[in-house]
User: What shape does this take?
Amino acid sequence: MNGILLVDKPAGWTSHDVVAKVRSQLKKKTGQKVKVGHSGTLDPFATGLLVLLIGSYTKKAGEFSKLDKTYEAELILGQSSTTSDPEGEITKFSTHRPSQEEVRQALNKFIGEIRQTPHAFSAIKVDGQRAYKLARAGKEPNLEPRKVTIYGIENVKYDYPKLSFTTSVSSGTYIRSLAEDIGRELGTGAYLSALRRTKVGDFTLSSALNELTKDSISRMILSNGQHT
Assistant: This one.
């Protein structure tokens, strides 16, 4: 079986958990092992669109990983996290409450091509190892800034300490790093409290599965115009 499978990943699951579940269900359906991979990880606390590649399509992982992405993000201002997300150690950082105008101006500074340093707890590889594995082992991965593009920041809602927005970004953009950078720009500190990926390239959540049964998976692969 070969094709593309769109999954709405629930919170608490790793991307690998989803891959393993789909692989298991396809084995039940076909009676044989089927190759399954993904085109870009989502952190366990995050939800949303995960593009899985089935069978011969796993060879196209590099192509799919370069697609632009859209996220719905929620930040908590005034605090910081060791991992820049809810899973780290959270501490009070500042009591400053930025105005609506301060927030607007800060967000505007990140629109366009920027240089972003991937977070130490990201999945980027450093000397063949995932950065987050090195960070969890107490090591400091050497991560260099790189160019990424923030195409837009929209649907902004701000009610201190919560700040939420929708953002479309180029491949390789780390939203937890963006959250940390926004907090630094505002002088408040910030961490990413919620994240939902809604779009990858032309793929959207409206076509994604949230129930991974062997029959629903098979139907979804076929409905994407692929073949067995």
Helices lie at 15-30, 61-65, 100-108, 131-136, 175-186, 214-223.
